[in-house]
Amino acid sequence: MLQIRADLVEEIMAHAREEHPHEACGMIAGPEGAERPERFFRMRNAAKPSGDAAAEEREQAHRALVLGEAHAEYEGERRSSLTYYTWDVKERLRAQREMDAADEWPVVIYHSHTRSPAYPSQVDIDVASGPANDPRIHYVIVSTRPDAEPRVHGHDLRSFRIVDGVVTEEEVDVVETYMFAHTGADDVPDLG
Question: Which end of the chain, C or N, has fewer beta carbons within 10 A?
């Protein structure tokens, strides 16, 4: 089960709405060893057009390598930031250094789907099952499509564990504060 504060859910949704029709992505870090998301990292979707032709060409080459021929298209259309996200490498490394310095880890990795339900695509599953996969991570997906079905806190938001290609949906418990929530001993007020 993912237990997450309401303000973090709203931050995910605000980011997803701001980026729509492009996919949004980011992480929420928490103390190492705890499954308590606390610190929000909005990331830039490197698949989104930047106006820098050389950078876009490098990203497209990277996308072709990562996705391969089998996932290069979505519903007959070449994949783009409308149907795919990838981390900006520099931002991802900066965030990881900040987490390491604070003894944190990425409790939640989130992204939005702009045309499909909040459920992992085969690309999502393949990427989450890669060699750097951490089975503790909660993969949160939100849908910003117009007919999205509200599931959690009024949003089409779902959380999954993805391990070795196996997707397991988990319950999402939205709380106002972690203090006194049933996540183990926690008598320290939230920082945020």
Answer: C
> Position 52: which residue type?
D
- 3-state helix, strand and coil shares in percent for the chain, rounded to the nearest 5: 25, 30, 45
**Those residues with Cβ within 8 angstroms of residue 78's Cβ, 6 or more apart along the chain or in another chain:** 72
- Separation between Cα atoms, residue 12 and residue 51, nearest integer Å: 26
Please give the span between the terminal C-alpha atoms of the chain, in angstroms, as a whole number: 21
Distance CA 131, CA 55 (A): 25
State pTM to two decimals.
Answer: 0.85
C-beta atoms surrounding 66 within 10 Å = 14
**What are the residue ranges of helices labelled H in the chain?**
6-19, 53-67, 89-101, 122-128
The model's pLDDT over 18-75, given as tens digits with 9 standing for 90+, comes to: 999 999 999 999 999 999 999 999 999 988 877 777 766 766 666 666 656 555 656 6
